[in-house]
Amino acid sequence: MQGDAHHETDQAEAIAFCENGAGIGAEADRTDTHGAIIFLIGDRALKMKRAVQYDYMDLSTLEKRKALLEREFELNSKTAPSIYRGVIPLTREADDKLALDGDGDAVEWVLSMWRFPPEAELTHIASNDGIDDTLAQDLGEAIVRYHGDAPVKDADGVTLITEILDELDRVFGAMENEFQDNALRFVRQGRAMLSDRAGVMRARSRAGFVRRCHGDLHLRNIVLLEGVLTPFDALEFDERLGTCDTLYDFAFLLMDLLHRGFAHPANMVLNTYLNGVSDHMEDAGLDILPLFLGIRAAIRAMVSIQTSEFSSSSEKMLTDARDYLQEALDYLDPPAPVLVAIGGLSGSGKTTIARAIAHRIGAFPGAIHIRSDVVRKKIMKVDPLEPLDSEGYAPPITAQTYESIRQQATQVLAQGHAAILDAVHDNAESRAAARDVAQEAGCEFIGIWLETPTDVRSNRVTGRGPDASDADPWVVKQQERIDPGPLDWQQIDADRPLATVISDIAARLPKR
To answer: Which segments of 198-287 are extended strands (E)?
Structure first.
């Protein structure tokens, strides 16, 4: 159902009052969404719910708008206390004029917030500065914390996704002019994928992955305040939509990054998140991630059409909607999984290259990067940046580390997703075992061996900052004694500019 906008005429006076500064400042900067209007006035932000009604959101009465503003404050003031102030009325005073939080009767309600600079928004940071690896890792860790604090709910994740697909089917039916038959094709394919993977979703529900999540977790709803990444504006209008699988919540952020062209950061965020959520990959949910990404993109397509009714750039929004829907269809058609193993002595560039190519491999947003240095630290129950003594590198621990990374790769491949094994692999037995993982999974295997002179490797380990690897120039010197044996992996000269090495390796990867 399209928005029922006939109620909005009742808000004209309140909207004009806020546009003129609401008695607290000069004329406001106004931002419109399909369900709200935000007025930026001085150091304040006032959010007014639109008097509209959709299938999924009813804001048609003053009481309903107030209730949802109060719920929005309740949800967000806990996780973003530096932003949210409270819900206050616009009142009709004795002189028949409107006032903000006056003594008269409420004619409208607004959510009062502290205004943050636009430079703090991740959309601004991404557009102007990009998203480097550090910010991507911080973002993944921030969502791990957010979901860790979210209350577990006794709900079936399949029911929600079924209802969303049913709703998309209804709403898309009125959008045939914009989407032709692509919308109905998406719903049909989405239902087929849901039927195939409902068991996985129910298992995750039983395991506690269904929580009261953010619900609207994309770049525009995350800000960087005093160095802290802060999600805000959590979805408040429907507890059914806000109560979901954490991976479905997270998929909105991944989809938004991919839509904006940040494929590499999206992969970094995913890998950081999964490493923070669990020590293994068995319940990562990667087999349902394509469906979650697709639904998130399809919803954005729907909302873009609805928002175009209120936007001065409606043509652009229609184009965006069609792009979103095509991306949604692409997500539902993931390529076959592949296992890439990258070996080489310390300082050869394994981790740098694995990170650089991961987003190019397999289903969106790319391969899961399984790094032996990180897994070893988890086995020893220490922080990744905490150095290990000789015990941590004893042969039994090394054997356990390699067994663990191969087990994780097996789990990832079983979920239809690609993986990268990042470890020295300095003997024929470990290289053969890596190949066996791919063979047992029935997927393609690509082995890469990085060749780098000793002096270059020594300089690299000397010059790098804090890292999970404990290798130093002494270790590099000791590794000169290693004979890796016959190499049946593709040998790459890694003593070249990084861009050249990456381009060389990328040309050997399967095409999406």
So the answer is: 210-212, 222-225, 228-231, 243-245
